[in-house]
Amino acid sequence: MRATRRHRPMRRQLTGQPGSDEYRQAMAQRAHYVGSVEHKDVPSFAGNPPRPRPDATICDRSLSHRQADITNWLRHGILNGHFGTLMEGDFPRYVWYQDNERVYEGRLVNREQGAYKGYPLESDEWPEGLGVDNA
Amino acid sequence: MRDDFRLSVEWESISASEGDEIRATWARFSLLVGAYPVTRVLDANTKSYRDHILIPLYPIAEWLVAHWWQLLYEPQAPWRPSYDRRHNLRFGREGYLFPDLWVESLDDTVQLTWRASDLSDTVAFVGSGSLSISHEDVRQSLVQWIELVISRLEQADIQDTFLQREWQAIEQVDGEEKEFCIACARMGMDPYQVPKALAEQVVHAGRHVPTDCHLEFFSALQLEDVASAANDVAKARDGLACQMVDLSSLAALARGKPKDITVAGTEPWEQGYRLAAWLRQRLDARSDPLPDDAHLSRLLSLDQLPIHQSYETSRHHWLDALAECNDAHLGGVMTASPHPTGRRFAFGRALCEMLADPCATTLVTTARTARQKRNRAFAAELLAPAEWLRQQHLDSYIDLDALQSSAQALGVSEHVVSRQLQNHHIGYVAWDVA
User: Fold this and answer.
1) Which residues of A fall within a CB distance of 8 Å from B22?
2) Which of B6, B9, B55 is CA-nearest to residue B31?
3) Which residues contact B1 (CB under 8 A, 6 or more apart)?
4) Cβ atoms within 10 Å, residue A111
5) Which pLDDT score, from 0 to 100, does residue A134 have?
6) Is the distance from CB of A117 to CB of A74 less than 8 angstroms?
7) What 8-state DSSP symbol labels residue A58?
8) Cβ contact B54–A86 (<8 Å)
9) Which of A59, B325, B366, B375 sees the fewest Cβ atoms within 10 Å?
10) Looking at the DSSP assignment, which residues form a beta bridge with residue B10?
11) Backbone phi, then psi, for B74, in 5-degree steps?
């Protein structure tokens, strides 16, 4: 028996080393939310017409024109260190934002531009270690 | 693709979708387990059933690769932290719908279990079920699934994704490293995230615990106990070495058992019940109680039961007994249980191993592997035979006095009697009914 020398990051667990404030601020400034039309059933910032896929979770319609707010949630998650260890380019693959009893997962879709889409998580899908305080 | 676990993929071109690997792997996807499509949904929009879902396959394929070793080698251990996240494919969905489908290893087989769920307001997965499929068949089907997605990525000129890198690394693992990966997986660990110091302890244990015992050893442990558990095994073996007794009567029984008594493909507890029934019949014990060591040793033509006391050093209890039997048929059983009924039950479990699968060293543990399920069932049926319980004409709901009385007459714990009553559909104890 021989131990492997490979190590890899956990994909969907809060990073234990979120880096300095400056590091997170620089990352957050570039990250932005673009969404994806397959999760929309009404016209939205993600595109018009919407192209909802029956087997994709559909976004809350009240968020359809709140791209700036959702981008702020994304950046808030990064600034709070609520992102995973798996990095793709300069950005984490996953970022999490908690709004009371609901947690959203931001998923990187363009590593050069720092563009994300997102979706709500079931409670048993929340990443381990995600706290309640998200103020 | 194997008949019992079949994947059907029709690639779709979905241009308006974010993420290169997501966009490239959209597909009409259906998954059959046996004859049942676990991807069958009731679509409220169309008011009809369909057996496929339309999703990108990259997220699930990546999840399969990220959990590859634990998926195929961790035994059933739902009490372990995050067990569901390693064994339920739904946790790889990334915002798309996917059925609740558990993949759980039972050594030579894999149990696939699915259940109805509704993750959206308009689409619900219907149907629940479970099926055991050969381990190799499941492994090959998962390999084909992963390679199908990788091939699709390559066609779209997408390289260097997490999926592709990790799969290449898994494919390149050699025999010695594979042993380590499997050992870690049996403890519920991702081998690529084990700290160096603990990895060294795993390797040390692997080199000093008999290879035949590795499956049972690692399956019962938590990572932090591996060093102390290896020490427990060494101490137990050393302790037995100077207390070996003649077990040739047991060896003769093992040689005389029917070849098909533990047939692969049947449930492990069925194998245990069959072996116990055969032994009782072979020794003309009918369904008579064996309430103490003297009765049991007489039945087995032993001067006394070869049970000795051992002591665990691990923080978490994991070892119920260790049995040794050498080529000269000298051996014995070490058990950590201090109570007479517990000791006898542990011996019964070790006896199952000595009869069913004679090895130099055998571990009887707290794990839920196929072997441990078999030996638990064997010991229960040997010491608390279902037929004897039926003959007591107990009520369907058994009160605690009757339970205690039966346990005393049989020389077993009340828990063993309760499980026998339930598993053989004889009755239920008042405390089992909420």
Assistant:
1) 109
2) B6
3) B7, B141, B144
4) 15
5) 42
6) no
7) P
8) no
9) B366
10) B28
11) -75, 130
Give the residue from B25, B21, B13 showing the smallest Cα distance to A108. B21
Contact B122 A54 (CB under 8 A): yes
CA distance to partner chain B, nearest, from residue A24 (Å): 23
Is A59 within 8 Å of A39 (Cβ atoms)?
yes
* Contact: A11, B191; criterion CB under 8 Å: no
Chain A residues lying within 8 Å of B123, measured CB to CB: 54-55
pLDDT band at A106 (very low <50, low <70, confident <90, very high): very high
Rounded CA-CA distance B103/B91 in Å is: 12
Closest CA to A116 of A24, A27, A9, A19: A27
**Given an 8 Å threshold on Cβ–Cβ distance, is B19 in contact with A3?**
no
Q: B166: nearest CA in chain A?
A: A8
Range A117-125 average pLDDT: 92
Asked if residue B160 lies in contact with residue A89, where contact means CB atoms within 8 angstroms, the answer is no
Q: How many residues does chain A have?
A: 135
CB contact under 8 A, B54 and A2: no
- B162 contacts on A by Cβ (under 8 Å): 11, 86, 88, 93
Q: What is the CA radius of gyration of chain A?
A: 16
Backbone torsions φ then ψ of B330, nearest 5 degrees: -100, 140
**Residue in chain B lying closest to A59 (CA):** B95
Percent over 70 (pLDDT), chain A: 93
CB contact under 8 A, B18 and A11: no
Cβ contact A55–B16 (<8 Å): no
Side chain identity at residue B30, one-letter code:
S
Find the CB nearest A124 among B43, B84, B122. B84
pTM of the shown model: 0.92
Closest CA to B24 of B65, B66, B67, B62: B62
pLDDT at A28 over 60: yes
Mean per-residue pLDDT of chain A: 86
Residues of A in contact with B48 (CB under 8 A): none
Q: Which residues of chain B have pLDDT under 50?
A: 1, 434
A117/B41 touch (CB, cutoff 8 Å), yes or no: no
